[in-house]
Amino acid sequence: MWKWFHKLASPPHFYRLAATLIPWLAVPGLMLIAYGAYAGLFVAPEDYQQGDAFRIIYVHVPSAYLSMMAYMFMAFGGAIGLIWRMKLAHAVGAAAAPIGAAFTFLALVTGSIWGRPMWGTWWEWGDPRLTSELILLFLYFGYMALRSSIDDTAKADKASAVLALVGVVNVVIVHYSVEWWSSLHQGQTLFKEGGPAMDASMLYPLLAMILGFTLVFGALLARRIRTEVLYRERRTRWVREMILSPEGGK
Amino acid sequence: MDAMAMGNYGMYVWSCFGITLAVILISDVRARLRHKQVYREIEVRIKALEERK
Amino acid sequence: MTAKLSGSDLTLIRGERCLFEGLSFALEPGQLLLLEGENGSGKTSLMRAIAMLLSLESGEICWNGEPVLSQRQEYHGALVWLAHRTGLKGDLTLVENLRFENALRPQNRIDIDEVLSRLGIGRLKSLPVRSLSAGQQRRVALARMLLADVPLWLLDEPFTNLDRNGRLLVMQLVEEHLDGGGLCVMAAHQDVSVDALVKRVSL
Amino acid sequence: MVAGLVAVTRRDLLLAWKRPGDVLNPLFFFAMVCTLFPLAVGPSPEQLTFSGPGVLWVAALLAALLSLNSLFLGDHEDGSLDQLLVSAQPLPMLVLGKTLAHWLTSGLPLVLISPVLALTYRMPGNVMGVLMLTLLLGTICLSLLGSIGAALTVGLNRGTALLGLLILPLAMPVLLLGANTVSLAAGNEMYTTGVWALAAYAVAAISLAPYATAAALRISNE
User: Fold this and answer.
1) Residue of C73, C74, C83 lying closest to D79 (CB–CB)
2) What range does the domain containing D142 cover?
3) Confidence (pTM)
4) CA–CA min distance A174, chain D (Å)
5) C63 beta partners
6) What value of ipTM does the predicted structure carry?
7) Is the CB of residue C53 less than 8 Å away from at least one CB of chain A?
8) H or E segment at C181?
């Protein structure tokens, strides 16, 4: 197993592998999203309480899920990069940040749009999930701000890896402390305790959307990792040969 | 067709789906542009080195 | 125990530039390793890498045959680092600074006054360091080095801000250190004449 | 082991003694922020008693943040940070020493003068006690969290803004626990859960933060 992992971790190998991987992730992902969106919008019955507004769940939940997953990528990428000094792992961390921030923003926007008809306001501090999501967005901005303020890539990688590791511990703490905080004040939440009552025809589109979003996230991530790898390896021989070779490595 | 109206929540539901599509598209386009830009920068530097040799 | 410092196949890349590649050296007790090269040639970076302040791209530094990465505390306990900046607190007096250094090395037993008089800064004891001249501050940093009483000296441009007899004093101290079986790595512009085996690395 | 910690703490306290300005500035800032609020919102007593805990806690958080930027900056500039990184003493211990000295010169004074400001917010005596307790635990957490941020940004001279952006999201649970515990006490409800949570956070921070700070220092001092 170790040999496989080492082979994958070698930048030139990963750079080419990722290129072929992107369509294999993007196409099925988009198909799943197409099915999920159609089924979620038109096939699934409306929620007996929230009516059709609950259909926003099909984009809100996947985005919120990905905003967390991207941060995990940043933390694990950082940890592996620090412990085994693997540039590729740092590249994964650097690539995941902007995508994670995009999905966190998406979760916040869809959450507040969903809240408008439910609570009558665009923002309800009482909802613990939205508030935790907002703090997560600040964590992303902090990570990206630190990374952009350090010129030397190697140092930026290591410093932001430490911040991501400290941050991932705090994401958990933020989640529980915000839950405790909102239990003090009777804020309304989007979900009833167990979430909207979901029968099968409602649930399948959601699973499809989550899987579809994850695959699309994988494609976006793979593309950004290629760029990060290319930038970090810009002085190496394999990059020079690739660029000078006739068909290039677009 | 009234299905589109989403029980007069249409504006909220469609704006959410629209924004989602927009964010995914923008992320993809920005990722592609960034890759092209980095690739071109490296290409220019390496080609310049080659000429000088 | 024959204290021994060696570096094998050291490579360091800073941003765009590769400062040195495949560099190796070995240092035995009583020997001086002289790093030569103009400004910006990577002398300080190599010194910082030897002091484990900088991580290398590849290659390994060993102390007594063992890689330094696996014995950071012992290795740091056996060396003293003299850099461009003196590393002294300007607001504190000379004695307060040195007393702090001593507290970090509880096991040593060299008397402060004897060292200060040796370096000719005995009468500046109660002045805040920031009011001293650059040369005097350099001598205080040298005092810290003598007080540390450790086998390995890492000196980065030790002669800066020193007048003629200051430089002679440094050479004398290095010679005594080497005679006593110590090791010294020095980065300097001008040539150094010492009656001990001098190994040179040019960058 | 502890020799390093004691030595660094003593040196930093000596330094703070010689530069009282660095200690007093955050206190003035704390007092000023507490007076800004009534000016902005109006002096009505119910308003002040209701928002007192929150305002005092936010002001304490910002004051603590203000003094963090200089935690390692001075050492970085005069080269003594190099000496700490090359010392035989374990770096997390030295870093803990610095953070302890920082807390003694910034966090503790905040706690001590907070009752004076709490008076202006018509805070009853027992609530003031809870305020001081939560501020005591909270400032410990803030100093430790802030030392990580200060270590990450020491070589960048980007000022407090970047440090704030890094640390505030991490400090939000501390603020949230602290402020709400005090307002619970003000409403004489059961507030001990918040205090235990803050204490747990402080213990976790004391045992984990120095390692993160040490790693961050080694990275940013390269």
Assistant:
1) C83
2) 2-220
3) 0.91
4) 6
5) C5, C66
6) 0.90
7) no
8) none
CA-CA distance, A218 to D2, in Å (whole number)?
A: 48
Confidence at residue A54, expressed as pLDDT on a 0 to 100 scale: 84
Q: D82–C106: do the CB atoms touch at under 8 Å?
A: no
Give domain limits for chain A.
24-244
Cα separation, A129 vs A123, whole angstroms: 12
Concatenate the DSSP letters of all residues of D6-43 into one string. Answer: HHHHHHHHHHHHH-HHHHHHHHHHHHHHHHHHHHHH--
D39 close to C (CB below 8 A): no
Nearest CA among A44, A100, A58, A90 for reference residue A232: A90
D–B contact (≥3 CB pairs within 8 Å)? no
Chain position carrying tokens 């059709």: A52
C26: left (phi over 0), alpha (psi -120 to 50) or beta: beta
Tokens encoding A47: 């929620």
| Spatial distance between the Cα atoms of D150 and D103, rounded to a whole number of angstroms | 14
Determine whether the interchain pair D212/A166 forms a contact, defined as Cβ–Cβ distance below 8 Å.
yes
Radius of gyration of chain D (CA): 18
D147-172, pLDDT tens digit by residue? 999 999 998 877 788 999 999 999 99
- CB of A97 within 8 A of CB of A144? yes
- From C8's Cα to the closest Cα of chain A, the distance in A is 19
What CATH number matches the domain at C1-78+154-162+181-203, 3.30.950.10, 1.10.1200.10, 3.30.590.20, 3.40.50.300?
A: 3.40.50.300
In chain A, what residues touch D168 (CB-CB under 8 Å)?
Answer: 138
Q: Which residues of A touch B6 (CB under 8 A)?
A: 41, 52-53, 55
Q: What's the one-letter identity of residue B14?
A: W
Contact call for B12 and A114, based on CB within 8 A: yes
C-alpha angle D1-D5-D9 in degrees, rounded to nearest 5:
165
C13 at interface of A, judged by CB pairs closer than 8 A: yes
pLDDT of B3: 66
pLDDT in tens, chain A (250 residues): 567 776 767 888 889 899 999 999 999 999 999 999 998 888 888 877 778 888 889 999 999 999 999 999 999 999 999 998 888 999 999 999 999 999 999 999 999 998 888 888 888 887 888 899 999 999 999 999 999 999 889 999 999 999 999 999 999 999 888 888 888 876 566 655 445 557 788 888 999 999 999 999 999 999 999 999 999 988 888 888 888 887 766 6
The rounded distance, in Å, linking the Cα atoms of C93 and C191 is 34
Q: Which of A118-122, C138-142, D110-114 has the lowest mean pLDDT?
A: A118-122
CA distance C165 to C159: 10
Determine the pLDDT at residue A26: 94
